[in-house]
Each structure stands twice: as C-alpha cells, then as structure tokens.
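From the shared-data thread, chain only:
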Amino acid sequence: MAEAAGFQGTERPRGRWLRRTVTLLTGVLLLVGLLQVPHAPTAQAAPTGSRTVDVTIDSMSPSAPSKSDSVTVSGTLTNDGRSTITDAHLGMHRGDALGGRSSIDNVSRRTGYVPGADGEEIKGSAKKIGKLEPGVSRTFTLSVPVKDLRLDENGVYQLGVSVSGRSQASPYSQVLGFDRTLLPWQEADTEKKTQLTYMWPLISSTHLTAETDADAQQTPVFRNDDLAAELAPGGRLQQMVALSKNLPVTFVIDPDLLATVDAMTKSYRVNGPDGPMGKNQAVAKQWLHELEDAAKTHEVVALPFADPDLASLAHHGKHVPSALSHLGPATDLAEKTVDTILGVKPRTDFAWPVDGAIDSSVVDVATSAGAHNVITRSDSLRETGGLSYTPTAARPIGGGNTAVVADAQLSRAFEGDMSKAGSSAHAVQDFLAQTQMISLEDPGRQRSIVVAPQRMPSVSQAHAMATALRTLDDSGRWSQPLSLGKAAKAKPDPSATRRVPSGAAYPSSLRRQELPTSAFRQIRGTQAALDDYRVILAQPERVVTPFGSAIMREMSTEWRGDASGAAGFRRSVRSYLDGLTKKVHLIQKSGATLSGRSATIPVTVQNNLVQGVKDMTLKLTSSQPNRLDVGKAQQITVDGGHSQSFKFATTANANGRAWVTAQLYTADGKPYGDRMTFQVNVTEITATVMLVIAGGVLLLVLAGVRIYLQRKRAAARRAEGGSDDEGPDGDTGTDGDNGGTDGDEPEQPSDPSPDTGSESSDPSGSGEKVDR
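Structure, as tokens:
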C-alpha cells in the first residue's frame, strides 16, 4: 500500500497538467467554432414613438381655402410597429404661421411630431379608428371648417394629421404617427400681386437619323418608334399639350421636336434589321393639331434647333474652330420650323443653358446668335446683397443682354417621383406656399418671378405642375400670370445681383456631363466632309437638309450624362455620310499597253447615287511625264445611277513603263474620294524597223528617178525626129506580154494616219492594249 500510495503521489501533478491542457484545447476549439459560425442578421428595430404609424397626406382640398370653406384632408396610414394599436383616433393640428421661405424648407424636411411646433389637436377634429393591426393600412379623411382653424392673419400655416393611441410598448395614449403639409391663407387679394411666369417645355430626345430613303419623298429613317408613345393619348407630350390649354404658361419649344413629329405625319421608316415602315401617322397628326390650337393662345419661345448644349459649347466647343458657327443657323432654322409647322411667329431671343447654370463664357456663347435674354437660375446667379425679399427675375448684365433669373426653389418643386399621391400633394402645397410667401415678404413691392422647371417633365410631374398653376389661377389672391417676354422686360430691382459668376463657380457635377472637345472635333470633321460632298451634287438640298439637322442634334443638351449614346450617334451620322460619298468613285483599271507614239486612255467614273454629280474635275498624273504625257484634266458630269468613261489623249516619248494616277477633284480643287493608280507600258517602234522602212522608201525614190530619166530621154529623141519604137539601146520599149510600159506610175505610199487613239468608251480590261 505504501508503494501504491507512493506511485499515486508521483502521478498526481501530471494528471492535473493533462486535465488543464485538455480544458484549454477544448476552449480554443469552441472559440474557433463560434468565430466560424455566421452571425444572424440583426433585426431592424421597429419604429417607435411618433413614427410607429406611417401617416401620408395624399390630398388637401381646397389647396388655398377661403373663409367659408372646410378643409378636407385625405390620406393613408400604416402600422409599421410590431404590436396592435388600440383606442386609436385621428386628429388635425394647426401650427403657427411660418416666418419666411427658409421656414417652409425646414417644415418640409421635418419628420415625426414636435408638440411645440406642430400645435395642439384641434377640438372637434378627432375621429376614432379603433384598432390598427401591425402591417395593416387604411385610408382616412378628415374635414374641419376653416373657422375652427383660427387662422388669425395672412400667411403660411402648418397643417398636420396625427394618429394617437396605445400600443404594447406605450400603454398610455400618445401620438404614434404624424404627417404635415402647408396651408396658404390669404383672406383678401394682395394689393400688389406677384407676377408669375411659368415656362412650359415641349422638348424630347433625338429620334431622327441623318438617313433618308432614295425615293423622291426622301422617306426619313427614325432611330426608333418611341416618340409615338409620348404623342399617344396619355403619353408625356400629349399630356403636356392637353394640360396646357387652360393654363397661363409660355411654351418653350425645341423646333427639332416639331420637325420630327411633322416627319411622322408622312411616310417614315424605323431603323433596324428589317427597316419596318412606321404606322403612327394618325397619332402625330392629332398631336400637331392640338398643339397648333394651343399655340394660338400662348406665347411661344423657340430654342435653337435641337436645343444645343450651350455650356458644352462654351467650355469645350470654343477650342474647335467653327464649332460656334452652328448656333446662328440653328436659330434661323428654329424660327422657320415653328412658323411653317405651327403657323406662329416664335420668339428666338431666349437662351436656356442646362439647369440655368451660367458663367461669363456661357453667356458669351448664349448671346452670340442673337439671344439677348439668358434664362439662368437663382442658385447660379446668387444674391449677395442680403435682400430680405425675392427680387424681380430680370437683371441687366451688360452688352444689352438680360439675365432672366428663375427661382430655384419653385423651379425644382416638382422634381422627383410625383407618381405617388402623397409626393404630388406635398409638392403642390409647397409650391403654393412659396409663391404666397414671396408676396408676403414685401407686400408693397410688386415683383416678377420666373419658373423654369425640368426640361422633360414626366406625366405625373406635369399633372402636379398643372394642379398648382390651376389653383393659383383660380385663387388669384396673391399672384397673376405674366408671359416670359414681358418678364424679361420687367423693371429690374436695383439691389439685385447682376454680376455673372466666373468659370470657377460653374458646378463640377454639370461639367462632368458635358460634351468633350473631341466630340466637337468629330462634328467639325463631319461638317467638312459634308461641305466637300455637297458641292458635287446636282441637288445638294437632298443631302444638306437631313445632314445639317443631324449635325445640330449631335450638340444637343439631350446627351448630358449619356456619353456613349452621344458618341454612337456621331459615329452613325459620319458612317452614313462616308457611305454616300463612296458611291461616286473611279473604277479600277488594270495595266494598259501603248503600241505607238499616241493613244487615248479611257477612265470610268461610277455614280451610284440617285442624283447626278457635276462640276467635278478628273485629272491624270504620270509618274514619268518625260516618258508619258497624259494630257489635260477634264470637267465631268455623271447622271445618277450611271457610269461614264472619259478619254485622255496620251503621247509616248520613250519606251518603258509609267504609273498613272487618276483623281477626282471638287470645284474648289479639293481631292474627292480615293485615287486610282494603274500602269501603262509604252512600246514605240524600234530603230531596226525604222531602218528597214527607210531602205524601202529609198528604193521607191530611186525607182522613181529611173523612170523620170527614161521618160526624159524618150522625149529628147522624139524632139530630134527619132522613132519611139526603139530606145537608145535598141529596145522596142514594150514591156513584154503584159503590154505595160515602163512609163506607168507606181503606187504611191499612203499619208500617215492621224495621231489619235481608239475612242472606245469601254473600261480597260486586264492587260489592255491601246492601239494607235
């Protein structure tokens, strides 16, 4: 036992060490396992307090009530909490009158219920709703007489709707949801109403290509048929025109839209693999008819054709020669297009840079084509004089030019998603409140305010804009409409900012969206190619009109933020133009052989265009003029769909080969198309042959001399009385059996042939031989 006890005593420390090691390893393994187990996502905390219930005001009627009205508010509420709300009821709240335009912005940004700012629940406005289960939504309507709102003085008031009740987290009754809107209150007409100008833009994206079919009507080719959806009933442009009929707005039109829709009223084709014909002529005609009627009662301002990006031209186009030269023609075309299609004379003295952002270079470009009124925005031409009121829009900026400063807050009031009733209702009330607050800033000072909304409003945005304008027009208590032309001539405020910002102040976010300098270089290249092409055509207008418009579209404001789309459009225009120019070309010749000193060489010009080409020059150039002279250049004319050969008289001065280059030139001496090179092999008569011919000629001459001498001797003998029967040597003078005499004249060699070659107009084939 002692031994046993001794043994156990020696083993005990080792056992403790093993147990501790095992325990430590187990802990490490457990820790590693815990680290490797993915953590469960943290559950999002449920809304609490006054944000437990989502309350949304979808409408308020009337938007600008009078004293005898009742204000009705409708909307939707949803329990976003995790427990059922009991003893719930709705209530209406009226806050204090706001102190200025900045206060309106603060109220619009605030969420949740703030007892001191949102006011107490109006007595008699409560409406019980009982239980509201988690995730359940329901609509509501509350109505309160205006007299119960206790609107003491003119101004903009907060009007809110609350949901109060109990929940598991809040066993006592409290406000669990709240939404607010703005209530403009004007009991009587303002003495000096604010003059409000609202620009109503009719602008779309680019739909036409430069391509037209080769028929007499020049059937246009569209990039797609998407425009039809905008023109059809319920479409964006159809709604813009329909809503505008009874609104006091100024139409601001891109004439390219009119030209495109007018093209749709006739036969047109849609670009694509099969090139289907368009079928929306009726839709286009109806839209133009409605716009024509509306334009009779509205002021019409035409932007330069295709709505060019003035800032891109100012910041990048000015570095490319001739880039700015497109503005003048775009302005002229704008006036002509609107007058022709709508039958009204538009104003073309307004320029509208993107988002109204300007600097000195933008103003210079904008006014370079006759637009003396530049539409800018108050977040670009900022007030620095500390004015306590919103000044009149018109500001003289020097050089006889006027900056028409649109109000930034009003201009951006309907941006964003207006498809939700709540968003639209809040935007309308905010717009009305802002316009009334402008009048309240200085009631004794009448001012002219301009609104320049987004260029292409959606259908929902257009409806929200129309609702606000209709309410203002119906109320008429603090504003009155004014056309854009009159707004530009309004008496300017002497204290308002007139200094145009520098280039450093131009927003960097907008600079990043501009067309680069390389784009304007490509446009210049396309224009140069068009200029070279048009001069050869018998009917240049068939090409100048579609391509000229397409080049203007390459500079459109539409391409903001779409660099790939802009580049693709530029490539398509140039590619199509290059394809047309190559339809007039020289047919390649193979080598030709000249077997004499002179010959004619035909060169064929192929014209695969529908129309003829004229005033062109075809010139041949010899690589070795001392060996081969190819003659003078020729003026050529070739009818459409034909080829024609032109003959060049050539003269060979020495044997050997020479390369000949054929090149077409325009009337102003510029090379046209690719040159064509072919080889000519000159094979003149050799020296040996010349000696043989000379010998033959000498023999003929000697024979002639002999005959002459014989005849002379015979004549002398007759003169002396001798007989002709016998010659000096006793010959009889006969020629034997043939009865001929030595006195018969031999056949004379013919005169040399003229140095003219074959006049065949057929193109030379391979190894062509051109004979004398």
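The radius of gyration is 47 Å.
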